């Protein structure tokens, strides 16, 4: 069915970089045989999934949407892919994204444009644009994305699907090609909150192969989908409904709060006073980490090599031709911020700001169960509208980035349509409290 839908819609949406049809049919056949002998085994038995192309898949090309990795076939699976294998889902293919997950519209892919299924003149969001578009278009039942500054939630909001960035450390990052290691998290994109909880259940948990993996017990997420939000205390940061947030988005968030009130929850306005420094701090920290992480792509160890006159020349040629403009911009910014003499002024300062942002969240969670606001300031924008202006593009993530800096979990759920385009509602929870996030999110289904 997945390939049938893909045949029908893929030319319009272009979510996939690579279809693993042969592997998928083999797996489906195995499951069929299994079904006739032993019955259903695994929570995601036979469910078609698409994987963002920065998550490594054994023997299946993994390019991070970069020309530099055009020929890269990993020799192992990411932990999340292994876990999906155990749950018996079927990998349909690899999904388009912004190159190395740097972007908010998937327009920075080295290969193709992905279009928003709601309006193909508009972007699907990014960087997990393929992951969100494929679910919205019905090509797969769920997908995996990665979120460093909003890359699961913003495309989920733009495409009208459910996207969760789990608490930092809940889901193993082993096999996720690192962008900014202190921020990156893998998470599920699904049609419903219930599906999202099922997928998180399958991929969460301690992994000794990831040194940042948290050794915590994973609760049963389905049991929190009661629909009961009575007595819950909700905080609404005034910074999340102020300038930059469009009128139509604001109205939908207010309607959602009204609905929660009707269901017995209460809400109050609060302040996250350091939010206004989040984008500036993020671009120093994320770019610094990216400049170090991407040093490994030197043409020797992975991917495409462009031969030069000597070793240094080979590095230069490979990286000049392999990386796109946005990736180069981040590497230059990060290298500058980390250079001696500037370290204290930029990197250290940004780390200090990060601590203050985290403290803002800690303070609010002393008194409230969840924080609610929009996922993005606007609905999906037009293709080409922001590509030439990186700063406007960066501002798209103003409401999602603070969450990554703090490390808390957050989900984006559809909160209605404005002028025919989906609006995303963001529900932010305390550390490792995905259960409450799901509980509130489920009230919108
Ligand atoms: N748009 C942000 C960036 O370009 C976030 C990307 C992400 O979450 N991977 O860095």
From TrEMBL:
It catalyses: L-glutamyl-tRNA(Gln) + L-glutamine + ATP + H2O = L-glutaminyl-tRNA(Gln) + L-glutamate + ADP + phosphate + H(+). Coiled coil: none annotated. Keywords: ATP-binding, Ligase, Nucleotide-binding, Protein biosynthesis. Its EC number is 6.3.5.7. It comes from the Bacteria. Pfam families: Amidase. Residues 1-437 form the Amidase domain. The active site is at 52 (charge relay system), 127 (charge relay system), 151 (acyl-ester intermediate). Belongs to the amidase family. GatA subfamily. Heterotrimer of A, B and C subunits. HAMAP family: GatA. Allows the formation of correctly charged Gln-tRNA(Gln) through the transamidation of misacylated Glu-tRNA(Gln) in organisms which lack glutaminyl-tRNA synthetase. The reaction takes place in the presence of glutamine and ATP through an activated gamma-phospho-Glu-tRNA(Gln). This is Glutamyl-tRNA(Gln) amidotransferase subunit A. It comes from Evansella tamaricis. The lineage of its organism: Bacteria, Bacillati, Bacillota, Bacilli, Bacillales. The gene is gatA.
């Amino acid at each position: 069915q997945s390939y049938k839908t893909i045949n029908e819609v893929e030319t319009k949406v272009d979510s996939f970089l690579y279809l693993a049809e042969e592997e998928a049919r083999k797996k489906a056949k195995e499951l069929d045989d299994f079904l006739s002998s032993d019955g259903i085994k695994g929570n995601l038995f036979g469910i078609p999934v698409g994987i963002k192309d920065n998550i490594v898949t054994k023997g299946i090309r993994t390019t991070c949407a970069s020309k530099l990795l055009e020929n890269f076939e990993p020799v192992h699976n990411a932990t999340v892919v292994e876990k999906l294998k155990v749950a018996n889902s079927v990998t349909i293919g690899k999904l388009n994204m912004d190159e190395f997950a740097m972007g908010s519209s998937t327009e920075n892919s080295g290969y193709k444009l992905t279009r928003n299924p709601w309006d193909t003149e508009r972007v699907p969001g990014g960087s997990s644009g393929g992951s969100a578009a494929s679910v919205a278009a019905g090509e797969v039942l769920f997908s995996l994305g990665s979120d460093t500054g909003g890359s699961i939630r913003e495309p989920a909001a733009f495409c009208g699907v459910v996207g969760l960035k789990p608490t930092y450390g809940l889901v193993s990052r082993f096999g996720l090609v690192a962008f900014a290691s202190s921020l990156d998290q893998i998470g599920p994109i699904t049609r419903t909150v219930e599906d999202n909880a099922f997928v998180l259940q399958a991929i969460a948990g301690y992994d000794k192969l990831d040194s940042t993996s948290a050794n915590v017990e994973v609760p049963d997420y389905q049991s929190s989908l009661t629909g009961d939000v009575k007595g819950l205390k909700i905080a609404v940061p005034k910074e999340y409904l102020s300038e930059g947030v469009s009128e139509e988005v604001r109205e939908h968030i207010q309607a959602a709060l009204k609905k929660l009130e009707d269901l017995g929850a209460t809400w109050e306005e609060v302040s996250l006073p350091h939010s206004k420094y989040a984008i500036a701090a993020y671009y120093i920290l994320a770019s610094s980490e990216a400049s170090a992480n991407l040093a490994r792509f030197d043409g020797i160890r992975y991917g495409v090599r462009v031969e030069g006159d000597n070793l240094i020349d080979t590095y230069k040629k490979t990286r000049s031709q392999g990386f796109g403009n946005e990736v180069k911009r981040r590497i230059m910014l990060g290298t500058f911020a980390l250079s001696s003499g500037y370290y204290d002024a930029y990197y250290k300062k940004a780390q200090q700001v990060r601590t203050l942002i985290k403290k803002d969240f800690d303070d609010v969670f002393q008194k409230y169960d969840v924080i609610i606001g929009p996922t993005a300031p606007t609905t999906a924008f037009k293709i080409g509208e922001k590509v030439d202006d990186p700063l406007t593009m960066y501002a798209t993530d103003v409401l999602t980035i603070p969450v990554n800096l703090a490390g808390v979990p957050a989900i984006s759920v559809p909160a209605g349509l404005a002028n025919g385009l989906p609006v995303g509602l963001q529900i932010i929870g305390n550390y490792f409290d995905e259960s409450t996030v799901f509980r509130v999110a489920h009230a919108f289904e």
